[in-house]
Task: structure prediction
Amino acid sequence: MKHAQHMKSLHTIRLIRAGCVPYADALAWQRELVAGRSAGQHGDTLLLLEHPPTITLGVRADPCHVLLSSAELAQRGIALVQSDRGGDVTYHAPGQLVGYPILKLAHHGADLGRYIRNLEEVIIRTLADYELAGLRLAGLTGVWVDGGRAKICALGVRLSAAGITSHGFALNVNPDLVGFAQIVPCGINNRSVTSLQAMLGYVPEDVSERVVYHVGAVFGVVIERTEEQRNRETGAHA
Result:
């Protein structure tokens, strides 16, 4: 009985798996969710998705960190989008697990800095499930492996005036890493970018499920799956 009462007292986060979504559409979707969360129309939400090949510019991005011209990007089918997240330049592509938590920060007992550390902790614990040591580097956001020489997860977030988070993390599972050569990732030019596939030698099939589990553990929340969502996931580890 006490366990049941404790579970009811925890905050819940609704999980939505959305497949591959163009970045501009996902940006508009996040803004709608932030507005709805601010107005109390729904609770917290975690979007898990991928993007087609896209370079995004954060609010502090240096355009010089995009190494191709607009014409070259168009020729290669890569979108270039100005985002309202923090950070510099990053690259998205299929094979990268992107997580956008839309949370009322005050309900999770953390300031923005602590919230970012919590997101990093989710990824660090996920990597540990595959016996990889994820690291934080002083003065930088994201998660690193190979003794800090290679970045495996980028982070960039936004906090609305109403205290609602958006944007989040991008964990490289098995994207084509060649795409990162078209930018200076996160404005850092002396370290490489890697993926779980590159580090492990195979593509793990249950990464998103491990991430969901660790979001629940790190934030102390119940992950709420709709009936439709549960039906979609039956027998799958995507």
